[in-house]
């Protein structure tokens, strides 16, 4: 009986967590010019789910990303909070804290994150890509549902309406065997 109750609650939660009260748009037509005003956002945050793979390694995590001014704080945690890490970006430096009282720091942001996480993640550019923007310091080519930048294909698979703004809900980022999928459950802008 206890098992049935647990199963019912688990399935109910799983079904509800997949629902959203916000309008979703799946027929995405990307235009960078329509998003350029978002470069001026001083503060934003979101929570969601992230999966990464590169042909050798793969993992998934819950993600909470908060941006304020020149600081980005990315909290990652695996199932039941295992493998938690906090990545803090301030301008062109990164600190990774795995909760062991030995935070590690570097000025080589993307390379350092790859060394620490085992999978290459272009976090320097991703801080713009999650907003639906190309990195302003690099060239890009628009491609229907997204763009190509620094040899990465960025696809906006779904958008969600936040009143006056359509923000990314499902994002796919690929380069060769490296694949990143992000589902954003809740935005605050």
Task: Give structural notes.
The protein has 189 residues and is of the alpha+beta class. The protein has a single domain, classed as Lipoprotein localisation LolA/LolB/LppX (outer membrane lipoprotein receptor (LolB), chain A, Clam), CATH 2.50.20. The protein has three helices and twelve strands; from the N terminus they run H-E-E-E-E-E-E-E-H-H-E-E-E-E-E. Strands 1, 2, 3, 4, 5, 6, 7, 8, 9, 10, 11 and 12 form a twelve-stranded antiparallel sheet that branches. Strand 10 and strand 11 form a beta hairpin. The longest helix has 16 residues. The radius of gyration is 17 Å and the shape is globular. The N terminus is likely disordered.
SSE layout and pairing:
Blueprint: H1 2-17, E1 24-25, E2 43-53, E3 58-68, E4 71-77, E5 85-90, E6 93-97, E7 104-106, H2 109-117, H3 123-129, E8 140-143, E9 146-149, E10 152-161, E11 166-175, E12 178-188
Antiparallel strand pairs: 1-10, 2-3, 2-12, 3-4, 4-5, 5-6, 6-7, 8-9, 9-10, 10-11, 11-12
Q: Indicate the CATH architecture.
A: Clam
What is the CATH topology?
outer membrane lipoprotein receptor (LolB), chain A
The CATH class, by name, is Mainly Beta
The portion of residues assigned to helices is 10-25%
Q: Uncertain regions: pLDDT < 50 for 5+ in a row? A: 1-20
What order do the helices and strands follow? HEEEEEEEHHEEEEE
CATH superfamily, called what? Lipoprotein localisation LolA/LolB/LppX
Number of domains: 1
